[in-house]
Design goal:
The complex is a heterodimer of chains A (373) and B (335).
Chain A: H1 10-23, E1 30-36, H2 37-46, E2 56-63, H3 71-81, E3 86-90, H4 105-110, E4 114-117, H5 121-130, E5 135-142, H6 147-160, E6 165-171, H7 174-183, E7 191-194, H8 196-202, H9 208-214, E8 218-220, H10 225-240, E9 246-248, H11 260-269, E10 270-272, E11 275-278, E12 282-285, E13 289-291, H12 300-303, H13 319-323, H14 355-372
Parallel strand pairs in A: 1-2, 1-7, 3-4, 3-5, 5-6, 7-8, 8-9
Antiparallel strand pairs in A: 10-13, 11-12
Chain B: H1 15-29, E1 41-45, E2 48-57, E3 63-64, E4 67-68, H2 69-82, E5 86-98, H3 103-120, E6 123-132, E7 140-150, E8 166-169, H4 175-183, H5 201-208, E9 214-218, H6 224-236, E10 239-243, H7 251-260, E11 274-277, H8 282-290, E12 299-305, E13 312-315, E14 320-322
The chains are: A alpha/beta (373), B alpha+beta (335).
């Protein structure tokens, strides 16, 4: 398969691994954060962590859109879905996310709420046009990767004059999250593997502050095994040479200036919220999007009232530490016991891109092997 | 998630389904025939050993590239008997029909069922029909049950699997699940993939000729190969280690899975079997399967070994990873 096989070549990967060993600093531990959940998934799915030098550790960042939605917002979505006239359209990933009292949209659906899985916000708009007697609410989540599609859908809804369609907006921004992690007192991240898909939209410029203000290198990477290994190599080289720059390993897709059309649509349809709460990370200033005044008629939060209650993360759950790279999934006391993919306590265990779920699904045996050794 | 109500995840064939079956059905219905939870129960009667199985079909859409619900309902039950080491004797079929269902379409689906039964060499010997009000069912649901006579040459069971045994897969995976998902038409993806639905009784009988060297067989349907291998590992108390690159996946299927972000190991098959054979008989078993039209792409994909914890481990070109069962299902109602 073109564009896939050449990046999954085991021999090339082993050659890269050998190069990484020569680049790894001696007598020093290096912590690199892969920001994006897609990277976390790829690392475990292919077993890439086994190829890294011992002194290089990958920690998992906040870039899993499902994982960062706070409990209160899930409850808000459930309360929307439970309104008799509402059809809630959602990406499949969000259905199993537990809200407060561990109830999920999937359970609300089983109890009679009209919840449907869609693959894109445009599908939700089409649903609204097909069923004009229903109030279709699209549960919008995701970073700058999915926000443009929601924005374009809002533009389209206005153009078509579709009145029974609204968006419950939970889009978040990657830059402010990175800043929050870098500002936390015990941040010990030496460099970042930058997200690939987000960067196709925003470009690489929004990461320049990481180098300028915090002196850490960023390498934007693709999602195939050799992409990730190459990005790690570029980061190690920067660290060795004392540089802190934004480099683009994913040049086949990502441009420095990003995608103008997508950014313009977002600019038209959304405003930045003064602050937004993130699961595990707390409230982060200017980190979330809401629907712009001009699109107020398509804003679910304006059309319906939602409880809007803030719900504390479960005490036992260390999602926040995992999302900041302060704890490995297996260091959480409930990992694999009270919190498993079938009975998730924390969001990191729900989506296959969540650090805990990826580690649970693909990486657990490594601990067993280490224990044996 | 609380357990107060049944959710779609409970029916998806992965871990949630297993909890429902073990925690509710087995608890209430407990008996020695049911408890092994194999694809078919074995009933001894008058000196004969009869395999008994049942399955319901709620696939949507009713027709998909490569098959339809009628063919699927025959092949699925035939295959559950076949991988239990039984030659199918007869099937029953129950139909739940939604009021307003087109009669012509019903006839066509039953004709397809008849053709599948002929191809498998089995009769649909008894049936039942119920019509429910509009909205109380989605078009048509079919339930089949079957009995088969156990092949006395082979003695199959997960308890017969030993460390060192080899794992044989009869062909490319994930074709049925992907074909059905694409047939729903809500993904703008044009890929030419057909369901692999086929009766496996001929192929399984060939394998039974290996006698005691054949240990265990399954057809990896809902939940895909990943689920079947996890059941094998748990049942045998052994680690299942396989080479991910040795698992045949057709190029188009692989491309579709890649675009959709789905692991082909978790996608349903309806015409493939996976067998455990002794290391000594592995090459012979491979030759036997490859000689059959349904096994041309067969491959030996891995082996069983002792380990501290029975897991399913895939060797990738880069390292190893755990292959777990799905929790829910990205593809609802595929069979």
């Amino acid at each position: 398969m073109r564009y896939v096989d050449e990046f999954r070549d085991g021999r090339a990967a082993r050659a890269l691994a050998a190069e990484l060993r020569s680049l790894a600093p001696e007598g020093r531990h290096v912590k690199l954060m892969e920001v994006c959940g897609g990277h976390t998934h790829a690392i475990y799915r292919h077993g890439l962590d086994a190829l890294l030098p011992e002194s290089v550790e990958l920690v998992h960042g906040p870039g899993c859109p499902v994982c960062v939605i706070p409990l209160g917002r899930v409850d808000d979505a459930i309360s929307l879905a439970e309104r008799p006239q509402v059809t809630l359209a959602s990406f499949g990933d969000m259905l199993r996310v537990p809200g407060g009292r561990r109830r999920s949209l999937l359970e609300a659906k089983a109890r009679g709420a009209d919840v449907r899985t869609v693959y894109s916000p445009l599908d939700a708009l089409a649903l609204a046009r097909r069923e004009p007697e229903r109030e279709v609410v699209f549960f919008a989540v995701g970073f700058e990767t999915t926000a443009p599609a929601t924005a374009l859908t809002l533009l389209r809804a206005r153009e078509l004059g579709v009145r029974n369609f609204t968006v419950f907006c939970n889009h978040v921004l990657i830059g402010p999250a990175l800043r929050a992690i870098l500002d936390s007192p015990d941040a010990e991240i030496d460099g970042f593997v930058g997200p690939g898909h987000v960067s196709t939209v925003i470009g690489t410029r929004p990461y320049e502050f990481v180098c300028r203000d915090y002196g850490r290198p960023v390498v934007v990477a693709g999602f195939e095994p050799t992409d990730i290994l190459r990005a790690v190599g570029l980061l190690l080289r920067q660290l060795r040479e004392g540089r802190a720059e934004v480099e683009n390993q994913y040049g086949r897709v990502v441009r420095r200036e990003g995608n103008h059309e997508a950014l313009a649509a977002m600019g038209e349809a959304f405003d930045v919220r003064p602050e937004f709460e993130w699961r595990g990370l707390g409230a982060i200033p200017r980190s979330g999007l809401r629907i712009a005044e001009a699109f107020a008629d398509w804003d679910a939060e304006r059309r319906f009232t939602v409880p809007g209650r803030r719900i504390e993360d479960p005490k036992a759950c260390r999602c926040g530490d995992v999302l900041r790279g302060r704890a490995k999934p297996y260091e959480c006391g409930v990992f694999g016991t009270a919190c498993t993919p079938e009975q998730p306590l924390g969001t990191c265990m729900v989506s296959s891109e969540g650090a805990c779920a990826a580690y649970y699904a693909y990486g657990r045996h490594r601990r067993l092997e280490e224990a044996k050794a | 998630m609380s357990d107060a109500v049944v959710t779609l995840a409970d029916g998806a064939g992965g871990k949630a389904s297993r909890r429902l079956v073990e925690g509710l059905f087995v608890e209430e219905l407990r008996n020695p025939l049911l408890e092994p939870l194999e694809d078919a129960a074995v009933v001894a009667a008058n000196g004969a050993r009869i395999a008994l199985t049942t399955d319901s079909y709620v696939v949507r859409p009713l027709r998909f590239p490569g098959g339809d619900i009628g063919e699927l309902a025959v092949n699925g039950t035939v295959n559950d008997l076949a991988v239990s080491g039984a030659a199918p004797l007869a099937l029953t079929a129950g139909f739940v029909i939604e009021e307003g269902f087109p009669r012509d379409e019903l006839r066509a689906l039953v004709a397809s069922m008849a053709a599948a039964a002929r191809a498998a060499g089995v009769a649909v010997a008894a049936g039942d029909t119920k019509v429910v009000e509009r909205g109380a069912a989605d078009g048509l649901y079919v339930t089949t049950a079957g009995i088969g006579l156990l092949d006395l040459r082979a003695v199959l069971g997960v308890d017969r699997v030993r460390a060192g045994d080899r794992l044989l897969l009869s062909g490319g995976i994930a074709e049925h699940g992907i074909a059905v998902m694409l047939a729903r038409g809500n993904l703008a993806l044009e890929v030419d993939v057909e369901s692999d639905t086929a009766p496996l009784n001929g192929l399984a009988a060939e394998l039974c000729s290996l006698g005691p060297e054949l240990r265990w067989m399954r057809d990896p349907t809902r939940g895909g190969l990943a689920t079947t291998l996890n059941e094998l590992a748990a049942g045998a108390g052994l680690t299942v280690a396989f080479d991910e690159e040795a698992v045949p996946v057709r190029e188009q299927v692989r491309a579709a899975c890649e675009v959709l972000g789905i692991d082909p190991l978790t996608v349903a098959n309806e015409g493939k079997l996976v067998a455990v054979v002794s290391a000594a008989a592995a090459d012979e078993a491979l030759a036997v399967v490859r000689a059959h039209p349904l096994g041309r792409d067969a491959a030996l994909i891995g082996r069983l070994r002792e380990d501290t914890e029975p897991l399913v481990l895939a060797q990738t070109p880069f390292g190893t990873r755990i292959v777990d069962m799905l929790v829910g299902d990205p593809l609802p109602r595929i069979c």
